[in-house]
Amino acid sequence: KIVVMVKNVVVLGGGGREHAIVCALRKSSQVGVIYVLPGNGGTALMDQVENILQVSPTDGAHVAKFALEKEAALVVIGPEAPLVAGVSDAVRAVGIPVFGPSKEAAEIEASKAWSKKFMQRHGLRTAHFEVFSRNEISEAKAWITHFKKDVVIKASGLAAGKGVLVPPCGDFEAACAAVDELAGQPDEASDEIVIEERLCGPEMSLLAWCDGEFAVCMPPAQDHKRALFGDRGKNTGGMGAYAPSCAATPAQLNEARRMMQTAVSALKEEGRPFIGCLYGGFMLDPQLGVSLLEFNARFGDPEAQVILPLLESDCFDAMLACAIGNLGQGCSIKFRNASAATVVLASKGYPGSYAKGKLISGLAQALSVPGASIFHAGTNLKQNKELITSGGRVVACTAVAAELKGALRAAYAAATCINFDGVFYRGDVGRTVLDAKLKVGVLGSTRGTSLQPILDAAAQPDCFFEIVSVLSNKKDALILEKGRNARVPDVGFISCLTAQNKKMSRAEYEEIISERLENARVECVLLVGWMRILTSTFVKRWQGRCLNVHPSLLPDYAGGMDLEVHAAVLKDGQRESGCTVHFVTDQVDGGEIVAQRICPVLSSYTKPEQLKATVQALEGPCLLDALRRFAQGDAGTRFFPRKAYLSSTTQPKDIQNNEIITYRAAGVDIDAGNTLVELIKPLAAATRIPGVIDTLGGFGAVFDLSAAGFGAASTPSEDQVLLVSGTDGVGTKLKLAAEARLVTGFSYDQNLGVDLVAMCANDVATTGAQPLFFLDYYATGKLDPSRCADVVAGVALGCKESGCALVGGETAEMPGVYKGDDYDIAGFCVGALRRKQLLPKKMNPGDVLIGIPSSGIHANGFSLVRKLIDTRLSEKQNALSKPASSFFQVQAKQNENKSLADILLAPTKLYAAPIAVLSSSSDSLLAAAHITGGGLLENLPRVLPDNLNAHIHKPTILPFPPLFQWLQSLAGELPDKDMLRTFNCGIGLVLVVAAAHADTALIKLKQYQPKRIGILATSSSSSSSEERVHILDDVTFQ
Asked: Global pTM?
């Protein structure tokens, strides 16, 4: 028996968006009671849902108190007003997770002026704009007149989606009047006015689940803002929508997704981490490209009413993952491969004034339409259970179907059932997509004779389709000439050879073809003499959208080719033959038949070529028949989503309902974990130092500071004991190590263990602290005890050299999150010091910079290293196993016979010891900088006071060591400055030493190969970090 602990949820808001959120949450088996503040007539009719009218959704203190009383596991904030009022902050303050951003993060919607400047600060493409206060009306009008381009006028503050005025093109008087109109409104929304250049092109709404760090985008949607048919009338909150939108090409959609992630990262960087749903409104401008119009800090309305019905994953899980910052921990959010459309029914007069209290009828009949749902917005439930209108937008009729046309048909069928006095709705939701010409792509390997009738038809002005792409795998195929003569926009030969003249795999080749077709916005693919067998991957990608013409009346003679089919027809004495257009599936010639054309087999036909000529003449008209049925929605899935937006991992085998499911069956092997503990116990024991209490395997590691020499302070001001912590990982060096392991047969796992300690303990040591103890975290899809033990062996080596103890760690086996035995690691180090030893100390001009060499790349910059190897080295796999000396001069004799992989994956040097050598001398060591990500130019300034810069003697760092020269060359002669901001370039640690002690310090550090690389000099002004490190041809050492 499985017991599921149900969790109560509080949802703030009372519109259609909130009704959609409640419906999505209610599907979760984890959710108990949903309290809606205040809710509407629709939520009032739902089981498991309670409307709460006594608590204002904008009163943070009362909402928090209510959520505590109801033991809510999650609070979801729907509309913008509670967000701007800081309700999420109040609820988080009492310890309840909230799906909704903080007041500071919500400013991205609350102030369009702030939002536009935010976009500008972080390089997010947007229209040119200016901001004016209510008191700067004359300046605003003068700017419009001077700008001489079409503009859009926006109230900066919240205006319920109605604070945007779009003057007619070229009418600057109307634009100035729009400024007067907004400035004349009494509410605070118009205290500031944003005037921006009017962009052109299709719009797209892209929403993302956000946890403060990651943005996981949902299917793109298209809403309809204007009140009336044909995009006329005033702007509204939204009169209809559909999803997924097919307005963007895959490249444009990827660009928009990148911009969403950039925004979330930038908000975190500015100290405003965004948690909840971030809404990006995009314009696909032909000149500017993908451009941001606006951000909203919550689900769109009515976008939520088409996106959430497509959600296949558990909505509660998704929202909670955002609220607790867990999106990056393998949370998988999946949407259905389907389309959704919604039509909003509004009150007469909306978006202006309108009457309320009108009786609503026909809801039950609307709900009987297959696939339809009704989301209430402006409705109230009377005591007699009758529903009446209470808002401008009353209900939204949503439907889900396999393709957009079916969804729109069902949504409108439901809308026609509902009635109330003054009801109106737009009759053209999605119409621009349905009325658009069908975009056809062609794949062919031969003459393309059957294509000519298609090209001739497409040339007619009233044709319902257009040919946008003709591609071939044969360079001299005559079908390409036909495409060029017809002025098809995208005509080309796709070679099956790589840039290195190597033959591609079928999957690689078809990926190029699919991307080419998708970027041409192809909706339907015709195979016309395509002489290649398609993979199941391609077939699935173009499921219901790829048609093939076969020279027989299928299913007869399926699998036959060209003349052999006609010869078989004649041999069998058939009286009729013809051609068939069918959908392409994994079964050769076995897909659904869309169209057939029949011809008689004349007695005079004695050769197959005669029958072929007759049948071939039918293929063009038959393809036209098929395209017509496809475009009308009577065949295939014209508006089927291009791809699943995020797929969750499935188990490798089905488990029967009556089968006992063990932890091992779920992919977690406890015995393997126990084996690992026994393997690493002696490794940890070897690192034991005074102060370690207990042994490996307990719930927590205990450390006695007194036993380690850090007893009670005699003089609190100087001898007070301070603790220092550091944490890090090894980044994408893991990926290269895994690839090298497959190629060379050697394991680099131990090196990565050393890297892990170095990245943490080195940072701790730069504060002057002695690293005391270390813990590791190892996460994998399937635990391989011996491989994990190799990593821990490296950790133990690193700990021993750094003088700290390995006191414990965590091994997490997470099938489905990581693939196979792939793994990731993280480390945590704690050190201690007396306050008087704390670095950095006071520094002066003339103090000396001493560089300690690195052992190679260390663990930073590997994303670039991997990119260079992937793109600039032919036969990448062989390259990793070749001697490094075949690529660059190997300096150390012991490295002469090492492979390129050995050199690239050399472990990070440990620097606790050289720092300790100097930190024991009073006033000798003033600061220490670990040169990691960001290189010398970014890391050295981290330890310098504002009044000092670093002057580096150029001959001490340039030319770079041969390894780094080789990388620089691979990158296309990357400038020295970029190298110094990416890699350590041979210097892994910089010590700042008092000028008077420099010579002594060099002697003490002799075994670590130190060298004087520069001095400190007075800074003339505040500068960026990289400007504070000056690489000079000549530096005078005192």
From this structure: 0.59
